[in-house]
Structures are given as C-alpha cells and as structure tokens.
Amino acid sequence: MRKNNYLFLVILLVIMTGLFYISGQHPNTVDPETYKPAVYSTIGALLPPVIAIALALITKEVYSSLFVGIAIGALLYSNGNLELGLNTMLYNENGGMITKLSDSGNVGIMVFLVILGIMVALMNKVGGSAAFGQWASKNIKTRVGAQLATIALGVLIFVDDYFNCLTVGSVMRPVTDRHQVSRAKLAYLIDATAAPICIIAPVSSWAAAVTSSVPKGSDINGFNMFLQTIPYNFYAITTLSMMILLTIMKFDFGSMKVHEDNAKKGDLFTTAARPYGDDDDTTDKPNGAVIDLVLPVIVLIICCIIGMIYSGGFFTGETFVDAFAGADAPKGLVLGSIATFFFTFCFYMVRNVMTFKEFTECIPAGFRAMVAPIMILTMAWTLSGMTGLLGAKFYVHDLVAGSAGILKMFLPTIIFVVAMFLAFSTGTSWGTFSILIPVVCNVFGSGDTYEMLIISIAACLSGAVCGDHCSPISDTTIMASAGAHSDHVNHVSTQLPYALTAASVSVTGYLIAGGIAYFTESSLALITLPITLCLLFVTLLVMRAYMRKQAA
C-alpha cells in the first residue's frame, strides 16, 4: 500500500512540474470575448465529461470523478496554465463553480430541494409516511403492485421532473421497501417516469423548454410542433412501455437483476454505500393519518402548477398555454413549495399532530438529507460549464449540419444519436434542445416535407431524454437517486442496460420513420409507433427466453 502511495505522489509531482512549466508559456489572464483554447469546438471539448463519467463507473465514486472532470476541463481551457485554470474552475463568468452557484435558476433548484427534504422530514415526523405505508400494505399485496403503483404516481406527477423524482420517491419508498423492491429498481422507476413523461406531457416545464427553443422568425408554432412530435417520441414511449412490461413479466436483466435478486433476500442496497445514512423511515408517532401525507402532496402539486403559470404571466394576461411556454420552472417550483411549506405548518398545527419545536427540528434534518444531491448537482453544473467553455455545442452543431445534405433520409436517426451523445456528455437535455432544435429547423428547406421536420425534432427530443437518462451527471438522474435514497453509481449502472435497450429499439424506429416520410411525403410514418412497440415486446421476449436458457 505504501509503495502505491509513493508511486501516486511521484506521478502527481511529474504532472505538476509539467503544468508549472506550461504555466510559464501561456498568459495568466485572457479576454473571454476573444480567447479560444486549443481544443475549442473539437472532439477534445467532450473529453472532461467522458473522463468524469468513465471514472464514476469504474471507481464507483461520483464526487472525485466529477471533480477530476472539472479540473481537466479547466486545464484544457487554460492550455495548461495553473493560475488561469484555477480561476476558470471557480470564477469564470460563463462556467465557473461560483458563477453556477450564484445563478438564480440553480439556487432556486437547490431551495426547492431543501424545502422538499424538509417536507419529507415533516411527513415522517407526524407519521404520515408510516400511515400511508400501512394503508398501502393492506391494499398493495405484491411486488408487482408496488412497482405499478410507483409508475402510476410518476405518470400522474407530470408537471416537472425534479418535483416528480423527489415526490414519488418520498411517497413510495416505504411501500417498495416493504415489498422488497431494490433501491436501484425504485430509482429506475422514478427516473423512467420523470423526463420520459414530461417530454410527452403538453402541460409541463419540458414542453415550455421545447417551445422556447424554436428559432424566432421560422414561422413554426412551437407548441403545435411539440404536440405533433409526441407519437414520434419513440424513446419516451418505449421506456414507459418497457418499464410496465418488465414489471408485469417479472423479468430483469443486467446488473439490475443482481440488485433485485438480493432485494428478495432482504438486501435492498446490494452494495455497502449508504449516502442517506441508515435511512430509517420510522416515526415516534405511530398513529399518524394518511391525510398527513396525501393532502400536503396534493397541495404541493397544485401550488407548483400555479407557481409555474404565475412565473409565465398567466395572471397578467397570458393564456394558460403561453404561460406554461414562458414559465420559469425553478421560480415556479420555489414559489409553489414555499406556499406548501406554510400550508403544511398551519395544517399540522391545526391538527395538533406536532409541536412548534418538533416542526423547527425538521428544518435542519430536511436540509441535511439533501446535502448529497446538492453537492453532486453543484459539480455537475460546473462540469457542464467547463464543457460549454470548450465549445462542445459548436462541434456538435457542425457535425449535424454537415451531414444533413446527403443523408436526409437517415437524418432522424443521426439526430437521435447525436442528441443522445451530447446530452450524455453534458448532462443536460434542455441544453441539447436549445442547441439542436434550431439546427434541425434550419436544415429543412421549403422543399422538404413538414412530416420529416416533425420526425427529426422528435428524434432530437427523444435522443436528448435518452442521453439525460443515461448520464451520471444529469440533474434528473441525480434527483432520481435522491428520491429513491439509492447510491448514485448503483442507479446509473443498473439503469444503463435498460436505457440502451430502449435506445436501440428507438434507433430502428427512426430508421423506419425516416424512410417512410422520405419516400411517401405523408403522415403514413405514424404506423412506425406500433411497429416499434411490437419490436420492443419481441426483444424482451427473446431476452427473457435467453436468460431462462442460461439459468437452466
């Protein structure tokens, strides 16, 4: 062990010596308006997130992996200059950690997280979670029922993915625990009903993000376009269908099977990692009522919807649709959660189920529960900022635009793959929308069919959700881990085979849809959806038969 430590120190010393030498060859300060690093808008711009993701999957340690990715990104931006790299990592006005933490939207997300953490602590304290668990135990008799109930709740909470992840997790975790569903499986069910639901729900923060990404002056109605993309959003629909089929078929594969087999034996975690401590949801008030959990959750949903349309100008004359399209999701969620917090305080006081002292004790407890996801989010945002400083989006933009001329029939498939890779590397599906949707709108000229445009936009949305779903640095993926109280690396590694299966089926779907739209120039391509779902079903049947044969 000591020899390994010495070897590590020697290697580190050599690297630092080289960096100090490089530091003397490059300026310590630059003009951000004109400065371009050596790897700007090249494939090297994707190196930091790729390294961070690879390290996370190899080492099973997410914090240090993200930090290494950030450091590499800062050094690439500074061309090896240590002083400039350190300032870039912390204070760069377009991507530094301090800048990301001072962004009002990011702060809003963290405040929302903390308030939800406090709400969960309050529900546990008064016995609402325990009461719901007892009710569910009487009415949900099987593991299949517990998983289907989790899916149903995830579908019902379609307004926003952050809200979805944490609410579904806090409500259903005691239920799935009682029915021996692994935390990794719960995290997958939460994640698979977050972004995939939001991207096909017209009334959601995601619909607003897509609508706002349509370039001005393109003569395209963003909301109508979004509605038309829904039947072509193969990854979202395939993921939802696969999740239900796997549950009904009582079938798992990959590393998820290991976690589920262990859960049936009483081990919900498989690994030793416990990022949320002992995770004991017991209460010192066993006589809590179901309404102590259900009513605050319902109020939270209503208040968050009102908060979002308020932020979009609904109460100042905007229509409901336009208000959602222009909503500031973090602002709306913070306003909604704050209102719910005060409602819950009054509700519990009137019901006399807790004292004021007990209420205040839940505030720091809820905050502590959210420290882990806040740390991961902070570093994920910073890593995304480093990737932006290196011009990754321009590299991807040129890649898509350059291939469109001769490959229009295959363009939906190409866009899906590129969007998936970009969202996976950057950890943001919304950022992917903003980059690729204008490109796709500009690629298609007046001679192209509108159907091909719709399919290509849908492929962009679908690929972005897929990449976001797979990425360890995605905030939605992090939220799903937080909601399930699952180790983040366990969640990512078990979800990845499922996401890639749905992605493979979706690629086939876009190949078929692109070909039909290219040759028929009509909406006949809509038949691709049932074809894709049938292909998914056959794929799962073949996989189940193969696994049974291997086990025999």
User: Helix fraction?
Assistant: over 70%
Number of helices: 27
Mean pLDDT, as a whole number?
A: 82
Tell me about the largest β-sheet.
Answer: none
From the helix content, strand content and strand pairing, which structural class follows?
mainly alpha
Taking pLDDT < 50 over at least 5 consecutive residues as the criterion, the unreliable ranges are none
How many E strands? 0
**Cα radius of gyration in angstroms:** 24 Å
The general outline is globular
Q: End-to-end span in angstroms?
A: 43 Å
SSE ordering: HHHHHHHHHHHHHHHHHHHHHHHHHHH
Beta-strand level of the residues, as a percent range?
A: under 5%
Task: Describe this protein's structure.
With 552 residues, the protein is mainly alpha-helical. Helix content is 73%, strand content 0%. It has helices at 2-23, 47-59, 62-77, 82-91, 97-102, 104-126, 128-139, 143-156, 161-178, 183-192, 195-198, 205-213, 222-229, 234-249, 255-264, 291-311, 320-325, 329-351, 356-369, 371-389, 392-403, 411-426, 429-443, 450-470, 475-484, 488-520, 528-551. Among the domains are: 2-92, no CATH class; 104-220 and 284-373, no CATH class. It contains 27 helices and no strands.
Q: Which features does this protein show?
A:
552 residues; mainly alpha; 27 helices; 73% helix
